[in-house]
């Protein structure tokens, strides 16, 4: 570093490490960290956000709650006014309410699922803090799986086991670059998404890795409705209809059988159940042969292209890659299961450069060399309650207490939730059918939210506590499969009366008589040092050198030991399936699963299957809603975080999110760049967006990024800002996975002529101070 850089301290975010300097007490300057060879522009969002007027300046309580929780008219959650409180009063009121709920309803009345990415630091990880607090008090109903990989996290363990889980330890970029020949990428490899890695990436290598694949002569095939889903290296574009990849894969499977290119030896030694799957492909079980012509009708790719593609994958060493976005859709388990099945038919699983992978390009850690040791993390304590929901079923749970539902072979009952506690997530951006979620959030007695910003979720809370931003506190950044750990040093003092989540919980724990259990007598700075010490002990026990905490803090970063060898998924199992069995019932890859078949679900059979989604371009609903909306991850921010920042704002137009539409579809609706449109859905809800005409999407498809802060007009059931979850479907992927299906739904788009309502998503609600922040 040069002399002038000395005031830049190291810091980190899920979208990269950076250096930050306080220009004055309210202004910062950031620059990329020198360890990062290809930093993400998203780091700039912090500059515009840190003192933005959407910061929460002090504790608040919703007026309706204070006056006896009326849930009608303007006293509803989401539209109500807020009353400022002193910290001590807020703590006293909330702790009394927490005590009441535990006394009257026990832990099954408390939902602490609190899903969300929060910020990168490992100690201040907000969800861990909520869980530790609620475990200290008496337990809570938790959530399992994620919005990212809900269906995948259920189907993969069932058919390939957890031991060598492809989600957590798939093939590496190095393996594919050195040994690959052909990569068939369903959903492409969209490296804008790989800019983020939960916990703080220091090495943005995905983009360069794709360039290296191209330079190494690996043929890249982008099977996606969006051309730019694979554009870091030359690739062949197969513009499949959204939601029909399984049909395309079945067409390829049929061709492999037809030309005699199925590796029956591998299937016999490493898989089970193929003999029940092949008759389905050939049509002997259901009378429908899954030929290339059959597939072409469904996925709108010419049969000749499918036959040619099958010829290529039959000849070359092939890696089949499925993006997580494919499983965030109706029947989302199927593309993953079918991808594994197709790779098994080719016989290359476990060999260098071949096989199957999930998620390359979808998050930083996929494809990187794995860590040898687990990152530091805050122990969450023991949960006295064993009830849980699949994470994306939150609205179902709140709306239907006592109702039974299926999940992964279990028959479960939704609990009756009285208290919802959320910190570090924004369900009013991330959940589907947000107007339904708004109704669901009227049901509990009390909703508590900690956030640094007045998100729509905060505006649905009864108690709103102002959290510090990570730039205002001490922490450690450390992400899976990353070569460095970063000392996160504060750049500014806490904004207004904001406090660390930890200190908020410590004070509440004090009121509830469990402070010692929650804090173990440590301050947050002592916890950070303690967690680093535990990590250092792990390394020492394995004979590895590691700097002391003081050395780490002084230097600002520490190297993290990684696997050195390029790895391909299931190489040990491949070498000896008897000595290294998978932890599936058969010890093998399950092309047919007796366990799944035994559940008797009508939406998930014993082998991977093409099932028509309810909302797709080949279905009846497409007559009224003829466009498939893809709501994928944004390029200018992580999810909804720091949406007011410049890197996010430049991706919008006229204050709204951009909707990309194909020129033919635009012409049919007489739309041009910059038009404002209403995007409406079968849910009788809509959002507004600004048009961008481009052939980067195939015809019949429109695309809007997720994460624009929800700016609802409840009377019109529309989001003025362009959050696509205003119109997405709130159902599970299937009874098996119950994952989120936010990625795809059907819509119609029409130009709005005449006056258009302005959107002001980044403002505090009525009653909250609009003066406190200076920007
Ligand atoms: P974020 O915007 O990251 O979204 O959903 P998620 O809720 O994780 O929310 C994090 C929140 O935490 C922000 O409001 C931020 O201000 C707050 N925060 C940050 N740091 C702290 C802190 O230290 N303390 C506290 N108290 N708060 C903090 C993401 C989810 O969206 C995900 S992971 C996926 S993959 C889904 N993807 C899709 C999709 O593809 N399509 C649709 N339609 N919908 C999706 N939703 C899902």
From TrEMBL:
Keywords carried by this UniProt record: Metal-binding, Molybdenum, Oxidoreductase
GO terms, biological process: anaerobic respiration
Gene Ontology molecular function: electron transfer activity; molybdenum ion binding; molybdopterin cofactor binding; oxidoreductase activity
Domain Molybdopterin dinucleotide-binding as annotated: residue spans: 627-739
Domain Molybdopterin oxidoreductase N-terminal as annotated: residue spans: 11-51
Cofactor(s) needed by this chain: Mo-bis(molybdopterin guanine dinucleotide)
GO CC, one annotated term: outer membrane-bounded periplasmic space
Annotated Molybdopterin oxidoreductase domain residues: 55-509
Disordered, as annotated region: 753-775
Pfam families for this protein: Molybdopterin, Molybdopterin_N, Molydop_binding
Record-linked Gene3D superfamilies: 2.40.40.20, 3.40.50.740, Dimethylsulfoxide Reductase, domain 2 (3.40.228.10), Dimethylsulfoxide Reductase, domain 3 (3.90.55.10)
Family (UniProt): Belongs to the prokaryotic molybdopterin-containing oxidoreductase family.
Designated name of the protein: Molybdopterin oxidoreductase
Lineage: Bacteria, Bacillati, Actinomycetota, Actinomycetes, Micrococcales
